[in-house]
Amino acid sequence: MKKRNLTTYDIGDLQEHFKKTFHNSPDLFFYEMKRGDSSILFIYLKNLVDLTVLNQTILPSIINNTKESSVDFKKLIYQLPTTLAKLTDDMEEITYKLLEGNIFLFSPNAEKGLLINLEKKVERGLEKAETESLVFGPKISFTESLSTNISIIRQNIISEDLCTEKLTVGKKNEAEIRIVYLKGMADEEIIQSIRSQINSLQVNDILDTSVLAQLIEDNSYSIFPQYVQTELPDRVTYSVERGMVAVFVDRSPMVLLGPASLFNFFESTEDVYMRWNMGSFIRFLRYLTMFLSVILTPAYVAIITYHYEMIPSTLLVSLGESRSKVPFTPIFEALLLEIMIELLREAGARLPTKVGQTMGIVGGIVLGQAAVEAGFTSNILIIVVALSALGSFTAPSYLMGTAVRVIRFPILILAGIWGGIGISLGLCFLLIHLIRLTSIGVPYLKPIYPFDKEHALNTIFRMPIHLLRTNPDKKGFFSFRHQRSQDIDE
Fold first, then answer.
1. Which residue among 88, 232, 396, 472 is least packed, with the fewest CB closer than 10 Å?
2. With contact defined as beta carbons under 8 Å apart, do 118 and 54 qualify?
3. Is the peptide bond before 450 cis (omega within 30 degrees of 0)?
4. pLDDT at residue 240 tops 90
5. Which residue from 306, 304, 328, 305 is spatially nearest to 315, judged by alpha carbons?
6. In this predicted model, what pLDDT tens digit does every residue of 265-319 receive, in sequence order?
7. Is the pLDDT of residue 379 over 80?
8. What is d(CA 483, CA 469) in angstroms, rounded to the nearest whole number?
9. Does a cis peptide bond (omega within 30 degrees of 0) precede residue 447?
């Protein structure tokens, strides 16, 4: 069917066209203004338009500048008190712009209509970060407004080398995406890879940055996140200045950072704000507790089931007394407690904040005590499971903490079946997977594998600032240039 040109419509036809297009929506509003022998038809979706600006600024200006018998939008566009106006006769563009909060002015005598952007922004103000809480450093977080988030980064990185590329994704509901990086610091191949992956997406809508991350990851089947997701502007600033690429999505308060290594998920900008020795201790503590979170409960099950000779005789008596009333096998007992902990965590997260905190503390104490008295589990296993749960919460990244909690279950089952051999088998498979995993083509275990002595020490520990300062024109710790996996193979 041939598309009709705007000049073939009269006011009545155009009203019927948009009523049909928007399915007789009650939000669609028409207002006809008589100017001499001609008329101007205003079309807009009233819930998306700032009516105060329309009534107090745009309408008086139009009335004062359209007194002739015919309306000339080519002259009017230069007399309006706004720069967000354009002439068009593209019906598809007009429809799309109406959904973005524009008003459309139509006159039967004009070749083109006039679009004026009067979008009414519905957004929350800058607030304290909830997901990633900090003791030191800036407390504000990103919002759902893309323009606000980009302006925050512009204020933090005052440089002409800061580049922001605009992309759009979504067939039915277009979402604006921005790729942000520092020219000369970020790897051009990585930027091109992200750009091509986003442009190749064939989806109806992008709901959030987490959805985008799943669509553009190198391995979508892996449980490990391959992009760092953060709501902290200072972390984005810190990462972009070191050569990483940030991806912003409109209507989402989270930002993607890549390429990411496993160790990036255990780092926090708070490590930089603290003294280097304190920051090093806390960072090393995170690595240790996350490893213990994976291994502690499976090790208990393996030792109790198959390797009880490893337990000192004094402790063995205590374990025997603790388990004397428990009718279940160690593997079933451990799985029961682990699932109970996960239920408490999930219930606490879904309840209101104050109720959720009470639920987690009181529920854990009551259920743990009741389980021991009822003979469902032993005192020692409750301590082991509690330490494992605490260890998984030390990761600054919520996604990585969740991944660690999930990994614990298959290793726990392997420990119950084959004991220490099962744990070794599970850890070997996990290590092989991590070695093969990449993030935008960069090895996931970089800089430990392949080993990069320049960055390895600062990855495990937080080195003193004066040792990290290098010439800004050179590639040092502050640039964090990544080596591609294909370069490593060569």
1. 472
2. yes
3. yes
4. yes
5. 304
6. 998 888 888 888 888 899 999 999 999 999 999 999 999 989 888 888 888 888 8
7. yes
8. 21
9. yes
* DSSP symbol at 108: T
User: Between the CA of residue 378 and those of 323, 370, 383, 462, what are the distances in Å?
Assistant: 6, 11, 9, 40
pLDDT given at position 212: 94
Helix (H) or strand (E) holding 115: strand 113-117
Rounded Cα distance between 225 and 400, Å, is 7
pLDDT at 474 over 90: no
In angstroms, rounded to a whole number, what is the distance separating the alpha carbons of residues 418 and 269? 41
Residues 377-392, mean pLDDT to the nearest whole number: 86
Question: What is the distance between the alpha carbons of residues 88 and 463, in angstroms, rounded to a whole number?
Answer: 58
Chain length of the chain: 490
* Cα–Cα distance for residue pair 89/95, rounded to 1 Å: 11
**Six-digit token string for 397:** 């990244």
Answer whether 101's CB lies under 8 Å from 49's CB.
yes
> Quick one: how far is CA 429 from the chain centroid?
28
Residue that is written with structure tokens 């679009």 in the block: 115
382 token code pair: 């409750």
The answer to whether residue 69 scores a pLDDT higher than 70 is no
